[in-house]
Each structure stands twice: as structure tokens, then as C-alpha cells.
Specification:
8-stranded mixed β-sheet, single chain, 8 strands, Rossmann fold, alpha/beta, 16% strand
């Protein structure tokens, strides 16, 4: 259990990250018929001489319905103000948006199987055409995926679709044309996450519970989808109480064993939420990691 000082600091970090008012997008496009199957686009706030790199943002919130893309819009706007074109992707999540509770067994509290994965795959497949129409300032040839917490998991998973098992419905034949992935405190290595009870067993719920966890994990857990051949950096706060450092380290270790180098940037005295908080120094570090891949 964290001590009182650590818990208080974590609470203050969360309060700061959620204190910024949501930022409306320039354009919203649908990639499906469900209300959550949409992408918000933010044009670069600068006037670059050439098309701007595209950053695809996948929000976190333990794949639970109460946390939607609105909470990460200040981060999306922050990236746009630094010269990036931004696509903030929404997807279906699990549970009731108010209580995170549900009596419907087909809608688990954290995530929807297979809907959450269906949506991320469909959104990224539709993205090039949507970008051409909605955000002509963007250069899809310089695309970086980033995501926070559960969104970090989805970003790593999306970049690994070409190495999914042959029977996985989301598998693609060739690697996605990405410059790389910057995953922020990602919930990866579901076995380690479950041992640490990350976000209240969210990864277990995402895969449908104990009966289907082992069966579905090869389709869903990025630590089992290595190597990908795609440049990857993890950014992790050392004092993160939500998704402990051990989770990111386990993924980086697994990548090394698979013969792939994954960058791991560990930030001292940083918890879970400063990574997406425009008021925090950690957010500038994240933007720089993205820039190193995008430019």
C-alpha cells in the first residue's frame, strides 16, 4: 500500500491533469455507425512549411465507459500547439458510464470483447482516407501512435497486428506504415498486470474473465506479440501507483529477449497522470519522444 504522502501526491497529479477544460476538435469523423466510433481531428496550430506529422492518440481509463476521449483532449491540443496534426480516437469500452457496473454479462466492466479491438482496428484502417478529407495538413506517411495507460496497450497492440496469430480477425499481412509508437504507462504484460491488480483486474475483465483469459491473451497482449519491427518507446513514471513501473519493465525485457530494442524512459518523481497533463514537465518529455520518431 502507498504511504499517505505518495497517495496525496498521486491525487494532486490526477486533479491537475483533469483540471483542464476539454478542447473541442476542428473536425470529427465517423469510422462506423456506433456513437463511439469516431475520431476527433486537431489541425497543427502552427503553420508548417510542409505537411505535419500525424499523432494518433488513444486515451486510457482502464477500457471503462466512464472515461472517454474528452479527458485527453487538452493533451491532443497540446500536441497540436507543438506542430503536430492529431487524431484522437474513440472506441467502445465496457460497463456503465456512471457506475462502471453492469448486469449484462456481454458488457464487462473493463472493455468489450471483441468490440474494443474491432474498433481500434477499424479506425486505423479507415484513418488514411479520413485524414485526407478532414486534415489535409497531415502527413500520414509520418504517423506515430501514442496512448496512455489502457490506450498505451491499444497503441502497442495496433502496431503489432501483423504478428497476431493467423486466426485473429484483426491480423494484417504487412506492418502498418508507422514511424513508431510512444506508449505512456501502458497496461502491457497482462500476466504481470494481474499479479499487481492493475486498475482492479481490468485486463482480466477486458478478456472476458478467468474462463477466457488464457485463450484470448495471445490475440490481445502485446507482450506476446514481439518482435514487431516497429520503433517503440515506453514512457513511465517511477512513482506511478496506477500502473507500476514493473509492468513497462516486463514488456521491455520481453522485447529484448525477442531481439528487439524498446526504449524505456523512466521519469523520477512522476506518477501516472503527468504524462498527459499539459501543465506538467513530463508532458514535454512525451512530446519530445514523439517528435524524435515523427520528424
Amino acid at each position: 500500500m502507498p504511504d499517505d504522502a505518495a497517495a496525496a501526491r498521486a491525487a494532486a497529479e490526477e486533479e491537475s491533469a483533469f483540471s483542464h477544460p476539454p478542447v473541442d476538435p476542428d473536425v470529427t469523423s465517423a469510422y462506423g455507425s456506433h456513437p463511439d466510433q469516431v475520431i476527433d481531428f486537431y489541425a497543427p496550430r502552427t503553420a508548417p512549411d510542409a505537411p505535419a506529422p500525424l499523432v494518433v492518440v488513444l486515451h486510457g481509463g482502464a477500457w471503462r465507459a466512464r472515461y472517454d476521449r474528452r479527458h485527453i483532449t487538452p493533451f491532443a491540443d497540446y500536441l497540436a500547439r507543438r506542430g503536430f496534426a492529431v487524431a484522437n480516437l474513440e472506441y467502445r469500452r465496457g460497463g456503465d458510464p456512471l457506475t462502471e457496473e453492469t448486469g449484462d454479462d456481454s458488457t464487462p466492466p473493463a472493455g468489450r470483447w471483441p468490440d474494443t479491438f474491432d474498433d481500434v482496428a477499424a479506425a486505423l484502417d479507415a484513418l488514411p482516407a479520413l485524414v485526407r478529407e478532414a486534415l489535409p495538413q497531415a502527413d500520414p506517411g509520418r504517423t506515430v501512435l501514442t496512448g496512455h495507460s489502457a490506450g498505451g496497450h491499444l497503441a502497442l497492440w495496433a502496431a503489432a497486428r501483423h504478428v497476431l496469430p493467423a486466426d485473429a480477425p484483426w491480423r494484417i499481412d504487412e506492418p502498418a506504415p508507422l514511424r513508431g509508437v510512444v506508449a505512456l504507462a501502458p497496461i502491457v504484460d497482462f500476466e504481470v498486470a494481474e499479479k499487481l491488480d492493475v486498475c482492479g483486474n481490468a485486463s482480466l475483465q477486458l478478456l472476458g474473465g478467468h474462463d477466457t483469459f488464457a485463450e484470448r491473451r495471445p490475440w490481445a497482449d502485446p507482450v506476446l506479440l514481439l518482435p514487431t519491427g516497429i520503433a517503440t518507446t515506453l514512457v513511465q513514471g517511477r512513482t506511478d501507483l496506477e500502473v507500476p513501473q514493473a509492468v513497462a519493465e516486463s514488456y521491455a525485457d520481453a522485447a529484448a529477449k525477442a531481439g528487439e530494442v524498446v526504449g524505456l524512459t523512466l521519469l523520477e518523481d512522476v506518477g501516472h497522470f503527468p504524462l498527459i497533463d499539459p501543465a506538467a514537465d513530463a508532458c514535454a518529455v512525451v512530446a519530445e519522444e514523439i517528435a524524435q520518431l515523427a520528424w
